[in-house]
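Fig. S4 source data, part A: sequence.
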Amino acid sequence: MRRNNTQSIGEVLKEYIKAMKLSSGLQNARITSSWEEVVGKTVARYTSKLYIKDHKLFVHLSSSVVKNELLMIRGEILKRLNDIAGEEVINEIILC
């Protein structure tokens, strides 16, 4: 006998993540793990620390030259990272 209230595994997982309030943590992890994909291997090599706090992405860099380059394209990086997350997770990128 088939039940009428069947759901796909994907739908069940989405509901569970929403109910457990895990979505923001998963989005933060998705953004930090995609940093190298967005900025490239060369820039990622100079990134020493990367974390999100209060909708701000903090990026610690070991090269002032790379920092200046990223300052010029900060808006594009912000847009690409939020696109990967699927919604606006970060509002600002702070380069340290």
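Fig. S4 source data, part B ends here. The chain is about 55% helix and 20% strand.
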